[in-house]
Amino acid sequence: MAIRRLPETIVNRIAAGEVVERPASAVKELVENSLDAGAHRVDVAIREGGRSLIAITDDGCGMGPDELMLAIERHATSKLPDEDLFNIATLGFRGEALPSIGSVSRMSITSRPAGDENAWTLAIEGGKVGSVAPSSGPPGTRIEVRDLFYATPARLKFLRSERAETSAVIEVLNRLAMAHPDVSFSLHDGNRERIRLRAEQGELLDARLARLGGIMGREFMENALPISAERDGATLTGFAGLPTLNRGTASMQFLFVNGRPVKDKQLTGAVRAAYADFLARDRHPLLALFLEMEPRIVDVNVHPAKSEVRFRDPGSVRGLVVGALKHALAEAGHRASTTVSAAALGSIRPQGAHQLSFTGRAHSGAVRMPSGSGYAPSYAPVAPPAPGMAEAANAFYAPVSEPVSSESGFAPAARSDDHAADAVGLIDHPLGAARAQLHETYVVAQTSDGIVIVDQHAAHERLVYEKMKQALGERGVPRQGLLIPEIVELDDEVAAKLLSRAEELAELGLVLEGFGPGAVAVRETPSLLGELDVQGLVRDLADELADLGDAFTLKEKLEEVCGTMACHGSVRSGRRLNTEEMNALLRQMEATPHSGQCNHGRPTYVELKLADIERLFGRR
Fold it and tell me: Where do runs of H (alpha helix) occur along 217-332?
């Protein structure tokens, strides 16, 4: 077949296949145009997940009739004034969105510049452009996209359900809203309003946290750590959740580069490395990070959808992210998320199948107390007590002077210590003064405004782990030599990458050197790892270096070993502690960073405020 030039309509449809994968992709491109136009309000309406209708209305700068005709031509844009692809300061710059969407749908554009009295409208149907006509409308632009992919029916077969497509639109709009807290957003799906975010006022960090709370939930806003760091001309800000506030997937991790939502392996790997000490591999933190840097040191022209970026110095960016997150987590000290205490309060609210009523009679069903502050429980009238009843009750509830014999079959559930009265001054400490030990596993402490329940094994496991890490940092990783060096055969390029980081690997206890083309010889390994599969370790390390450019796997293996040793070397459940030991544990937790969670992200203690406890009993 002879070479021929494709028709313009086919060219636009091919471009649409790259830019517009689904309705959410069209929403993303059009909302980015609104933001680049300086809009302070963006309203989105969709029908059938965006298949039958996508309508974007903004109050941006608007377009005149001449600009309307240029806007729907391919590679026509106002966002590259100096034609420099390495100095991109806007979300869009390719000039492909409008012609691509118009080639596969029925699209109309109505726009009015701020200083003009009239609006103008233009219709495009399947790539066929109409003429500009006068219209009416407020300043700004409204774009309606109807019957998306009607010109390419095969693409419709690959769309998912209406619910899935609507969820994708919500996710796209939420990501853009996070990066622009000064802009109000709304989304209506034809049945109800799905998003309503007002423009936030005040300082950027405060406005950003309020916007994140509106999208990620109040729990995140209450348990978010502020992030602020700078390195080599790059600035990182945002908020990261405490380790005890985690999820089973990474869907609540949002990363932005110069205001652009991105999905980048380097940044995702940096987040995983920063939280490696605090979460199990199958748990993920909640966070939103905003990286601002000179446009010339980041390439956003990597993917047609602009969802991927490439950094000139990825190692510096990784170091910035890891360092900022670790610093914020260290500053949090022993703090645990408020969701832990909320879950505890929820679990102990009266809801048993058979409980005693206020009259002392058993009844079925839960006793549910309204949360209003003015609630006062109404008790059933009770006859006056008979003479001597009060004395009998006092005798019954009086403390036992002698320990209950185990032969009687009734052992005390909680153990308190006689020295507890001497710890009155300790209740002003953050974790309070130890009062009792429950089931030889949980330490109960009294604070100035509540109580704290500590899992003694999980808490001490974190303390031992942090001491081991400190010892490793001070003395280095001890190594053990191999009687016979292990030869590992690799690709030439992979072997070269490993050898280029030989000095860093040696600091971690792994000593290797070149052994001819495409092979390395391992002479020493970390003694902490004991007997190990050297071949598998080096190959896994090579794969990790290829993806992340850092010796991440080996660090993880060392941390896993430290965690295992800490678990076996910590105070076990079932061990009785006296008051001095319990208070010493509390004081060590207060002085040790990250002691609010064990090595797997589980909380080490639960704090219940006195006000919350009083609500449980109807006192408030």
Answer: 218-222, 265-274, 314-331
Residue 246, classed as helix, strand or coil, is: strand
Q: What is the pLDDT of residues 566-603, one digit of tens each?
A: 555 556 566 788 888 888 888 888 887 777 777 666 78
pTM for this predicted structure? 0.65
317 Cβ contact partners less than 8 Å away, ≥ 6 residues apart: 234, 266, 267, 270, 291, 311
| Paired tokens of 407 | 């032969």
- Contact predicate 209/221, CB 8 Å: yes
Q: How many CA atoms lie within 13 A of 104 on its CB side?
A: 28
Q: Which residues pair with 224 in a beta bridge?
A: 241
- The sign of the CA dihedral 544, 545, 548, 554 is positive
Quote the tokens at residue 615: 């609500």
DSSP 99-141: HHHHHTSEEEEEEE-TT-S-EEEEEEETTEE---EEE---SEE
Over residues 387-441, the pLDDT tens digits come to: 554 455 445 444 444 444 434 333 444 545 445 445 557 888 888 888 888 888 8
Write out pLDDT tens, residues 118-157: 899 999 998 888 999 999 899 999 999 999 988 777 777 7
Residue 295 per-residue DSSP state: G
Please identify which residue in the block is written with the tokens 């490793």.
Answer: 472
